[in-house]
Amino acid sequence: MSEKLYKELGKKLKIARENAGFTQSQVAKFLGITREQVSYFETGAREIDLSTLSQMADLFGYDLAYFIDVGKDVKDTEVALAFRAKDLKDEDLEVIAKAKRFLLNLDSLRKLVKGEETYNV
């Protein structure tokens, strides 16, 4: 991937994280990496593997295609899940990620039944 693509991916990651209401430290703990690594991903300074990107997409409630497809618009790739961010525990992030993945998959099934285009896996 080119440096330009990593920078674009990083911008999307940062926006998604901020929209989800998480700090870099929370994301780092969820992924089992350092906060600095999350920062590197967000600035496009480091490559990100597909597994880590998929985990971040789940946590943020975004379809993985949004991050991979440069021209993909966010409007059909994000799922909203209301929760109180105050006093979140590290283990709560795992539950939030699974719930958002479930909702994305449910939406994907709905789109399939209606014959709409879907990217969820």
Structure description:
Helices cover 63% and strands 0% of the residues. By secondary structure, the chain is mostly helical. It has one domain (3-114): 434 Repressor (Amino-terminal Domain) (Orthogonal Bundle), CATH 1.10.260. Helix 1 crosses helix 3 (35-43) and helix 2 (24-31) packs across helix 6 (90-114). The chain is flat, with a radius of gyration of 14 Å. It starts with a helix and ends in a 7-residue tail after the last helix.
Task: Looking at this protein, list some descriptive labels.
DNA binding, single chain, HTH-type transcriptional regulator ImmR, Lambda_DNA-bd_dom_sf, Cro/C1-type_HTH, 121 residues, DNA-binding, mainly alpha, 63% helix, 434 Repressor (Amino-terminal Domain)
Task: Please outline the helices and strands.
Elements: H1 3-20, H2 24-31, H3 35-43, H4 50-60, H5 64-68, H6 90-114
Helix pairs in contact: 1-3, 1-4, 2-3, 2-6, 4-6
Pfam families: HTH_3
Keywords: DNA-binding
Organism: Neomoorella thermoacetica
